[in-house]
């Protein structure tokens, strides 16, 4: 069953955590490709210095200001596509980057890292940016909550964002071999 739009119409950080364990599906030219989401990052609001929305509704980031439940797919370093899901209320720019997933069905490539994940599922900016996740070509299927512990850590490669780079808005399933590097470190237990 596909996740309903109401799932995405919530706080970005909540959606980022709750996407873990769900299954991203892309109907790629009639071929179903799927992977279980194991790592996400939240980008929350216009003040978030790590977010593409920090400069306002530019042509690239305008979709983040739109309604929830749509794909925001962009090109990074001119070579890799990255997929986000737009979250929160319309007008408040927020999205969740899908960083890594566990291969489930007909993946073309490694699914570790956001560019690899898009490559593995055949997701591309020119075809999938702005796609409604309530449609039939690109969507997220519901799944039970994951049995793994969820780790929170600072986001990756956003050092330019100052204090925003330290926000623990990267979420990953503990122990998953599919989480991208550097893997989040579990917190130390007291008394050890």
Automatic annotation (TrEMBL):
According to the lineage, what is the superkingdom? Bacteria
HAMAP family in the record, alphabetically? 3MGH (MF_00527)
Check the UniProt entry and state the signal peptide residues, or none.
Answer: none
* CDD domains linked: AAG
- What is this protein's record name? Putative 3-methyladenine DNA glycosylase
- The answer, when asked if Nucleotide-binding is one of the entry's keywords, is no
What keywords tag this UniProt record? Answer: DNA damage, DNA repair, Hydrolase
Q: What is its EC number?
A: 3.2.2.-
Question: So what family is this one in?
Answer: Belongs to the DNA glycosylase MPG family.
Q: What class of enzyme is it?
A: hydrolase
**Protein source organism:** Anaeromyxobacter oryzae
Q: Which InterPro entries match?
A: Formyl_transferase-like_C_sf, MPG, MPG_sf
């Amino acid at each position: 069953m596909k996740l309903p739009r109401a799932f995405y119409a919530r706080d970005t950080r909540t959606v980022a955590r709750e996407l873990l364990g769900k299954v991203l599906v892309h109907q790629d030219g009639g071929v179903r490709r799927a992977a279980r989401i194991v790592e996400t990052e939240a980008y929350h609001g216009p003040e978030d210095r790590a977010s593409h929305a920090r400069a306002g509704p530019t042509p690239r980031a305008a979709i983040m200001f739109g309604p929830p439940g749509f794909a925001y797919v962009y090109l990074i370093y001119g070579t890799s596509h990255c997929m986000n899901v737009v979250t929160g209320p319309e007008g408040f720019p927020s999205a969740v980057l899908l960083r890594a997933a566990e291969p489930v069905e007909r993946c073309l490539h490694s699914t570790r890292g956001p560019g690899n994940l898009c490559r593995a599922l055949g997701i591309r900016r020119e075809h999938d940016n702005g796609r409604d996740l309530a449609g039939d070509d690109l969507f997220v299927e519901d799944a039970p909550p994951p049995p793994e512990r969820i780790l929170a850590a600072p986001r990756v490669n956003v050092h330019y964002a100052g204090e925003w780079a330290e926000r623990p808005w990267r979420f990953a399933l503990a122990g998953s071999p599919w989480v991208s590097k550097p893997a989040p470190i579990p917190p130390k237990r007291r008394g050890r």
